[in-house]
Amino acid sequence: MIKRITSIIGLLGILVVVGCEEKLPPVAPDVITEKVNYDTDDPAIWINPANPSESVVFGTDKDTDGAIYAFDLEGKVIEDMVIRGIRYPNNVDVAYNFRVNDSSMVDIIAFTERERGMLRLFSVPNMKPLDRGGYPVFEDEENPEFRRPMGISLYKNPENGLTYAIVSRKNGPKENYLYQYLLYADSLGVHAKLERKFGDFSGVKEIEAIAVDDENGYVYYSDEGVAIRKYHADPEMGTTELASFGGEYFKDDIEGIAIAKHEDGGGYIIVSDQQKGQFNIFSRKENRFVKAINLSTTETDGCDVVTYPLNKVFSKGLFVAMNDDGTFYFYNYDKLQLE
């Protein structure tokens, strides 16, 4: 009887330990943005080349009557830069020096408009549409559920200057989950041309978060229930998976990805561990696990980071993460204590 009671007590002890997760000490944000109307999801940081202190954080507000919000570095909405009337915008990204004609280049944001099945493209900072209403994506899919775009990341090849949009979807097949589109301009305007289909999918949950390391030439995406997957970003380099890593460090959904770029190819890959309420950090070069941090956000989907000084508050750069109360949290990059 004593032996049986001891076994029961031991089992209860195991259950208590398993049920009580250790929570890392929280890191408070420097700025919390004003709230959006509906549901925040994904941010993208645009560094103003003329004046970094006037840089802008774009963020999606998911709804049938959604928007791409624009915030200054104090978290205030910049109303004349907000794009409204977007039917369920999901993810957003930024690229610099996109050539629109022989003599002119502009910075751009691209985002997905899920309910219309479109890739959208606007110039920054004047927020003019370049896409004539949008580019249809996943057009060759017979299943309408496989045509709803969700994640997006822009890739600019540092050698030839070509710019691409890599797009994921809400639901998709176990092979070729992502489509890669070349963005280019001619006398008729700006176009999106399908260049590549790639990307394995486990079949568990979905693929939303995508991030591209332009300088090193890699694209990473979250196969949410399994791992972070890595491929070459250049479509000419093929469609073979290079690595699949990190899944054992996550409680449940593997979500937003941000790449903190340091000199000589160093830096970190920061990935949201959504249900655990923290971020897992991996080295940019070797993709090895470094540490986990608690940045006080809840149920974080998207995140973004720049390692360039912007102002006194963000003197080492800026990390932005979505919070589930309709806001985005801003942190001085130094607060992540990665060095």
From TrEMBL:
Protein name as annotated: PhyC protein
Residue stretches making up the BPP domain: 17-339
Superkingdom, natural source: Bacteria
Naturally occurring in which organism (per UniProt): Zhouia amylolytica AD3
Example GO molecular function: inositol hexakisphosphate 3-phosphatase activity
